[in-house]
């Protein structure tokens, strides 16, 4: 199954949504597409009220839970940082479709550094992507021959590394433990009022070492 989501604030133009809808429809693949309530429903999907291969979710979805399901074989994403991390941590290869801001840098990380993603080819914020480019990127992620196999293996390895990081003794576990210990010691030294001070700390105020 292909999971499709462009994050909390990402939006596609109506023509772009139509191109993506047609591509997903003709791909023959099962897919789940999370669409914001204000984006409307793709016209291509309105003729068939009963959907056997597709699911359109309006509003918010349990993204990590969905991505973690074994049936998900690819993730079409806008490359927001949260979505990028979630895709990497669950070990799912990605079709990367940045929309604006730092998402283009995240695209380079996913494609060129981690090598677990394929570009759709958008070159600038809100740039249009032709249906052929979407189809090509989707096929590379879901099939992709030998390189596709290697990409999927790298994605699984990164997912395993992420899981190990949050286990007892892992790097994330250790760093979070140190942060909790630091805050606890700070509160013990500077009093109960320091607990509220710590939460309201501004960039203009220094935290004692």
UniProtKB/TrEMBL annotation:
Which Pfam families does the record match to this protein?
UDPGT
Query: Is Magnesium among the key words of this record?
Result: no
Superkingdom of the source species: Eukaryota
Q: Which UniProt keywords apply?
A: Glycosyltransferase, Transferase
| Entry GO MF terms | UDP-glycosyltransferase activity
Write out the similarity annotation: Belongs to the UDP-glycosyltransferase family.
Q: What is this protein called?
A: UDP-glycosyltransferase 73C3
Identify the species of origin: Acorus gramineus (Dwarf sweet flag)
Specify the taxonomic lineage.
Answer: Eukaryota, Viridiplantae, Streptophyta, Embryophyta, Tracheophyta
